[in-house]
Structures are given as structure tokens and as C-alpha cells.
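re: ur question from earlier - yeah i can do the single chain one, its not a big deal. heres the input i used so u can compare w yours
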Amino acid sequence: MLEPRLEPYSLQLRYLSEPSYVNAVRFKTFGKVNTVIISWFRARDAFSVHSLFRQSRRVLAPSHLDNQLDYYATFFSAEIVNTLTNLPFIYLGYKGGRNCLANGHDEIFFVAFVGCILVATGSFLFHSTLKYPMQLVDELSMIYTTCLMCYASFSHHRSRNLRIVLAVSLIGLAVFITLYYHRIQDPKFHQDAFTILTLIVVSRSMFLMESHLRPSWGRRATPVVEPRLQNGGEMMIAAEGKRSREALEQRRNKEILRAMWFMVAYGLTMFLGGFALWSLDNRYCTRLRSWRRRMGLPWGILLEGHGWWHLMTGIGAYIYIVWGIWLRHCLNGRQDQYMLKWPSMLSLPEIVRSNPLSSKNAHEDAPNGAVRKSK
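and the output i got, formated as C-alpha cells:
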């Protein structure tokens, strides 16, 4: 079978296999006819529609794995499933950002959710157009968002000068990755850089979680604000009451740790599961494409591994940022002021105020990395 060959203002289709059925319509761009839309086709040896549009639209996507037919549903989106599966990721970024504003979380996490929206938007545009600039927006914004979370993890309890050095270093790293990746255009470099940064951030967060919340590490539990006596005398706490409060603090921190580890396991499962499905989609693309063709729509969509990667990594990234928000409140001694709201596995977790009726001014903003004292 010969590939379709594009000629000026016309299209020639030649086949050496069994008959195919093609509907083609001409359309105008900038006042003149310059290409042809393939609106529907069926063939035993289906030709690659995207090759036609890559010739006519000068598409450049060096690291895009060509494992599916493009423009098979609509001309306005090259990979319709991979495009639409970014919409839930955009919603998660919006939901997380709105929660940050409503509950007074640190600004760095709001910026991280904005980064998630940028990642999903870049991916949406890339899979719609298969344009190389959109691919850079998709992939490099993943690096930038991870650098933001790296700053949030390492800047806590650090001096202002050290935070400035850390910020400048991470900006320099992001610029280096951007320029080097643009030069070599090797997807493996981007994947390795993203993986290393993610492992560093997650490992650091796990260390902070364990060292500040688990009593067996020998750290002093974060104290609960003690009530003062009403008679105006000095604070007097009975030894038995103090031991009781310490036991309550340890039990509280253990419950928080258990919930946090569940969030970590759930988020990693979603992220690694999505990556595994994407890898299988790349490895067995020919077989999966044949199965999708046999199943037809809509059930064939369930075998779109890259689409599952978008959905599952979006959920995993959202859960990781929520975990980071809760951990930051615990490090700042605000375990009793914020709590995890996660009604069921079918819902999404949120960190909300324990007392929603409290004044918005009860949470005073402080620079990232500074400890906020409970009043």
C-alpha cells in the first residue's frame, strides 16, 4: 500500500490492497484551498492520516511516539483521546488552587497548582496540534512545577539567604534543562531529569514527615497550645496532665502519619500505574491498535494507554501537592488547625480548616520557609 501523497490543492490516494472507503472534503485557509480533510475511512490496511497533515502543516514533534492514527475523529484534534484526557487535570489544578485561596495555604502550593494547569494545557495543545512548541510547553512545565515543589521542600526552616541561593540554583537548573533539551531533543533526557527531580522531592518530603511526626525518631512532638489558669497565676500543669497531653499528641501524630503514608502510597500507585500503562501502550502499540479497531467506539478508548497516563498522573500529582500542604502545616505546628477532608476513595482529598467558622485573619501569611506561630 502506498502512502497518500499531497499535491498542491489536491490529494491522490492509491492503494494496492482491498478497496477502502474515503470521504474527502476541501477547505479554505487564508482565502485559498490548500489541503484536504479526511473525514472518515475504513480499510484493512489503514493508511496513516497524520502523515498527510504533517506534510501540509509542517508538524514537528521529535519525541512523539507514532503509535496511533491521528486525526481519525476530527480535523481539529490530532489525538482526540489524549487531548480530552487533559481536561480533568486542568480541573484538578483549578480545584487545588481554589482550595489554597479559601484555606490560606502557602502561596508556593498555589503556584504549584497553577503549574499543573500549565502542564495540562500544554499537553492539550500538543496532542491537538502535534506542534513542537506545544510539546515544549507540555514537557518543560513538568520540570518547572517539580522545581517549585523542590523549593517548597528544601526551603522550610531555612534562612532568607539560603532560600535565595536555593531559588537561584533551581532557576539555573531549569534554564539548563530547557536549553539542553531544546538542543538535543532527546525525550530520554527529559524523562531522566523529571524522574531524578521527583525522587529527590518525594524522598525529602518523606524524611521531613517521619523526622517531625514519628516519636520513635526522638524528636519532640509539636506542642499543643496550653491553656493558662484563669486566676492570673503562673502556668501550672500537673505531671499527670502533661503525660496525658503528650500521649494525645503522639497518638494524633501517629494518626496523621498513617493517613499521610496512605496518601503517598495511593499517589505513587496512580503515578506508577499510569506510567506502566503508557509503557505497555508504546511497547505493544500495533497489537493494541488492532484490538481498538476490533472493539470500535466507545470501548476502544479504554485501550488508550497514553490517555490513562494523563488521568492517573494528574490524580497522583494532585495528591502529592495536597500531601505537601498538610505536611507544611504539620511542620509549622498547625496540626490542630487543619485537617484532611477525604470522605471516600471516589472523592479527592483536601486540606481544610478544622474550624471553618474562624476568621480569615486567623491565618497570617508569612514568607515561605518561615515558621508561623499559633496565637
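The CA atoms of residues 84 and 124 lie 7 Å apart. not sure if urs matches, ping me
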